Amino acid sequence: MSKIALVTGAGSGIGRACALGLLKEGWTVALVGRRLDALQATAALAEQAEAGSGARCLPISCDVGQEDQVAAAFETVRQTYGRLDLLFNNAGAGLASKTPDLVSGEEWRRVVDANLNGSFYCLSQAFRLMKAQTPQGGRIINNGSISAYAPRPGSIAYTATKHAVSGLTKTAALDGRPYDIAVGQIDIGNAASEMTARMVEGVPQADGSMRPEPRMDLQAVVDAFLTMARLPLSANMLFVNVMATKMPFVGRG
User: Fold this and answer.
1) I need a surface site. Which of 96, 112, 187, 218 has the fewest CB within 10 A?
2) Tens digit of each residue's pLDDT (9 = 90 or more) over 179-226
3) Chain center to CA of 122
4) Any idea which residues carry the catalytic annotation?
5) Largest separation between any pair of C-alpha atoms in the chain
């Protein structure tokens, strides 16, 4: 019987790539994101890659920053499949580089809603499902970031939310123990996706300069993610860091 996964932000980038990776390994995947057309495009790519994969996709339009929409999405999964084995809390947002005084309250709330509130809403709903189902339990993987360890200049909203996601991961991992719910986090640095395209031109460095940064192939992220997803619930990779080898992270800023 196919295991059931829900991937947020599945319409592009890391979410799409990891959803396709799960489908290739035989999972059934609920594709969640704001744009239904992008989710349908992911399902079409799955069908092209492997006949029949598209039938194991369930596109669900949902803004993860809206609690009622998240609840409705998880209820759709419950009614359709009866259980959930894996949540990939991947959806997120950021801002153009700017100092704190230039970040508006509206911009701040938009990033918090997408990265932190959305992660909590989805995690909360996953707990509810995983505690009630038989057999009990499941796995939750939160998408953190290298920014969960150290910020870039001009990234206060993004970095603050990613630090908070680490707290979410640690606490949920503890709370999930009695129910066989394993919670971990994948922290990604410079994966080649739409979100990091600007790095080829140059991004702000800690010394005030602008320099291009190397990126890694998206498949490296998929491979690390699938390693986490394949584990039995008796084992957990609490934090996994996968990054471009030559990115300027380790060392003096």
Assistant:
1) 96
2) 999 999 999 988 887 666 677 677 777 777 888 778 889 999 999 999
3) 11
4) 158
5) 55
